[in-house]
Amino acid sequence: MLKEKHYAHERRTKNRDQKRIKERLQIQAIIDEFLSFEQLQQAQQSEGIPALFNQVTQHLDQHKLSFSLKKNFYQHFRKQIIQYNRSLQTDVPLPTQYLVSIQRTPLIFNESWLDGSKFAVQLKEKLLRYWYTANGFTADESIGNILICAILYGGISNLSSLDALLENLKEQGPIYHLQALQLPLIFLEPHSPHYGDLYDPKQTLRKSRNFVPDRLTQLWISRFKTQSIDIQHDCYTYIRYVFNALEFSFNQKKFNQLLQTSSHSFMQLDKVKLSPALAQCLTEEIESCGLSPSAFKRYLSPQLILDHDQTEEPQPQNINNRVKEEKLHTEDPLEALTALHKQILTFFKNRHKTTSDLCNLLQSQHAYLPENAKRLGLWLFSLFRPTTEDIKQITELYQLDQNKYLLYINQQQKIRHSSIYSYYTKLAESWLLHSTDFIEECNLNDHLEVIYKRMLNGVGKSKSQKFDLLKRFHHFQRVIFDADVFPMQNERFHLSSPKAEIISAKIFQQMLARLEYYKSPSYTAHDLEMLSIVYTIAFRTGMRINEILGMRIKDVEGIQASSIWIRPYRAKHQQHLLKTDSAERNLNVQILLTQEEHLKFQHYCQVRRRAYRPSQYLFTMWNSTERLKPNMVTLPFQRILDAILPGHRYSFHSLRHTAANNLAIILTMDYEFVVAFTDYSNDHYNLIRSHLLHSKAPQDSWYLIAHLLGHIEPNETFRSYIHLSYVMAGFQLRQFDLMLSTQIIQKICPTLITPLKHAQEIHLSSFDTQMLQATHVIPLGIDKQSSMPINKKEIQQKPTDDCIYGTARSEYPSALIIKILKALDQSYTPELLAQKYDFPIEILILWQQNILRLKKLKNRKNRPRFIIDADKSQRILPHIETMEEKIVLEYFFKQLNQHSYNDIHILNALHIFEMKANISHAGLIFNSADIRLANRFLTGIYSLFPEKYWQIAISSEISEEKLMERLQFKFLSCSMNSSLNNSFKFELVSQNNGKALTVLRYCMLVLLILCTPSQPRS
């Protein structure tokens, strides 16, 4: 039998609960043993309370209980004494021992740091004296001075970064200039074997390290650029030349000490306000990636293609099932396996049938599947934890050991559907491709090592993930197909490679502008408005895509939609889980969004609140309640960026990276820095800081940013998301403006001209412009070219004059119209509804008049034609209860979008319905002589409902063949009805139970209320 398995979050919750229960039982056992009311009373009478308390303490120490258990015990200890005092009205003293746990990172400014700073101070003093007294500097000493200044003043404290700087100097690499901040910038690419953003399969992993030279380093680089110096040695050798000139002993230990004392030096520089977190980024104690040159250029000065051409969504090519079946049996094995892979991918679209579809495929194709496809299919089947009956059928068919298959499944944890899809897509293609060469071999197990190495060859950043996935897949082959031990057990591929990309405000605004012109039959204008809000929230708050799509209406808090509560939902049908437990948080969107963006979001939320229930999804397609699929959000985003910025490397997740960096510089930097990189106004900058920063401690800012992104601590934020940390730190280090003798400056770089002729000492900042010219910097500034004007739509759009309310051409969703009509049908006053739903009262009065008119209509028997139950209520609109009817209703309003309220065909159909409708039938009955009338009716409304739901019921007296010939519309379903007397009936029939759906009657009544020719238009 299969063991019951649980998802990872369920297992974590269960483990926490079990631990809590175990601790509670242990605590209760100690209380029962030492602190029962009887024992306390005896100890009190014998004045032995202190001895009893000491006995409890000794018991805890002897058993070496955990800190958390001791802490909880003393809380229960106090409660027990309090309850004892209350019950017996006595005053036994409470235990005074408390246990408090404070976890903090090691202090940066500790004793060893002070010892290191002493060495740095002595070195800087000797260095300045050396510059004063030396008659000149050799080429080797010049390079050594560049490296030492970069260590002591520029923040480089890692050997690989120092080597990268030397390599840049050797290759005469470009120096860029951030014009807005007057910052020189050098792009370094140091080797970083386990963490980096620059992957090349032929080289060691590297990372982008943005180096902002301080003024002293820049001064020595200016000397280097004006002279012809050939670099032939390594960093150690060049620094040794300088130490020899200083008459300082130098060896490898001193070299390592110099690198370690980098932070001791730059953290003590005047006017430098560098937070400890940024200092640890410079010393590589906190991993962080900068931006590559191409990413930086895309960010600061993107070369956009600006035009008004509509971005169109390419139409997918449909391949019928017969063609797919033929491809499965083609003679080319690779083509057949590709077709099989594509067919399995289609199974994932319907998650409720994925297991059954896969099982049917394995059963029907077992004679045609090669060995590699069998192993892949059977492994995938096991991940879904199929029933024992299905396992029995499959194992018998493939001649496998059923007990082994059950054993393997029981050993595996329960995996979510989305995770299974990820596993399959990461493994399937490469496995089928590289194992096809060996499908003719007698034993595939002999070639697994070769196949695995081919699969891992050329894999980039995800090699560690694929390696772990291969181990999982191989374990299945070992259990089921008797494969050997994993052949690559001792190899390690674990590396981390973040995608360092940031989207500039200019790109984002142009993307939103092009979104208005996006052309696709899948999206209405309202859908595009909704997508612009989704993109804006991701851009400003850094929310993950699944966090945004999983939000409910009730998660938006406050009348003014001031905050968002990001939380999980564990209902079976609408499950929404967060990535981690720390992802549950509250975001103040009223502060994070601009005023205009928040007004747009606020209006959207107001419309959703009026029309839908609080538990329904906040972001859906127009007139839908289903959760948005991620590709519906990411596809337009990618298409538009492809059109305006070819060759980009952005994804939707890049918006989260952008928000992280924007918030980081807003909360930790001055506005001078913020305005150079973002589009935040000074007022918005001050608003965010005043509302979010409640402390001046630098670490609080970084923990706040981590919280906003849903991280437990800032290390992960720096590691994966902060890409401007080196530029931020370099900007702070540039605030140190050393005053040097003009004689030294002239000695170091003779080409510099002193601005003040009679000055003995001068600040290095006076030479900024000259040093930039001497180093031949390349401007790298924010592109100020004129951009395409953005059409800013009014927040409230007026409906088209001839549209039907509830369609996409109106500003009101169908759910709101249905809610209003239901209230009018229940005799609510138009005045009350107009105030509640902010709806034009003239329209409501007209609809009320139409409802009253319909209630007065009588049939031939003088009974109400539309009132459902005249004795109990005067209601005419039937209830829409089943999911099937709701789907038909959604389709109905979508089709209505193509029609106007005065469409002559719809009005004719409504007139016929008004004459022939009967309360006892969900459909419409026509006599055999009324075929022309029936065709007129169908002309108006047939296309408004899905074709598969239409059914015609025919009397036995009428020839079905002749009737079908005379009707102008096709019916997929036809039935005989003996109760019909020489007549036929049109109705919508359920696909589940074959019963007539009341949604036809409901929709016709809605049209009778809405589509009145004399209806005024607001």
TrEMBL record:
Transmembrane segments: none annotated. Keywords: DNA recombination. One of its GO terms (molecular function) is DNA binding. Pfam families: Phage_integrase. Residues 498-734 form the Tyr recombinase domain. GO terms for biological process: DNA integration; DNA recombination. The keyword Transferase does not apply. PROSITE patterns: TYR_RECOMBINASE. InterPro entries: DNA_brk_join_enz, Integrase-like_cat_sf, Integrase_catalytic. The keyword Isomerase does not apply. It comes from the Bacteria. This is Tyrosine-type recombinase/integrase. It comes from Acinetobacter lwoffii.
